[in-house]
Structure formats: structure tokens, C-alpha cells
Amino acid sequence: MKLSVLTKALLFKQGSDLRAIASLDLNVDGPVSSARVTGTANILGADYSGKVDLYSLMLLQKPLDFSLEPELAITGEPFNLWQVDVACKSVDALTPGENLGAVWPDLRFRGSGKTFTLTAVLRSKT
Fold it and tell me: Which domain holds residue 78?
């Protein structure tokens, strides 16, 4: 199977705290039972209504580990067997809240549909 997915604006929601709009350029390649998804997602805008403590993040000397609720996973076959490697970047700076400056996220989703790993780098300016 070879499939390309191009979108101009797709809405993503994570619980009640996070909403993002992204354009996608994804490729799905391989047999349906074990396909590989690669490509990029450009974040066009995002809204996070949870609390953000940028000061504590800036003081960290080591990576911050956290998990999103609910866990990122696909449970149905064959999609839970697919391998994923998708980079996500923001086109413009995102503002996490009033008077909190701006951030430029650089994210990567990797792994199988059963368990994704999310790595992130945030550049900020206050």
C-alpha cells in the first residue's frame, strides 16, 4: 500500500486542555498489516487552557518527563501494528497564555500504534 495524506487544516483535541490545528503531509507505505507512517505536521495554531509554568521549565537542567491523558495509543488492528515517525513543528510562535511570551515547539511522534513516544524541544521567548 502507498498512500499520501495532505491536509490544509485539521483539528486535534487532547482532553479538554489542548486544541491544535495542523497541516499534514504524511505517507503510509507497506502492507496494511505492518505499514509505516512518516511525514510532517505543521502546527498552525494551538490553544492550551491548562496551567503553564514556563519559569520552572526554563530552570530545568534535564529533560522533563510527562504523560498526556489519555495515553496516546491506537488499540484496533492492524493500525496498532503500524510504525510511526512524524515530526511536528510550529509555523509561527505559539502563545501559551496571557503575558507568558511565546514558544516554538519541535515535536516528534515515534513508535508503534500501540505505544507512541513523544519527544519535544521548546524554544521560548518572554
Answer: 2-125
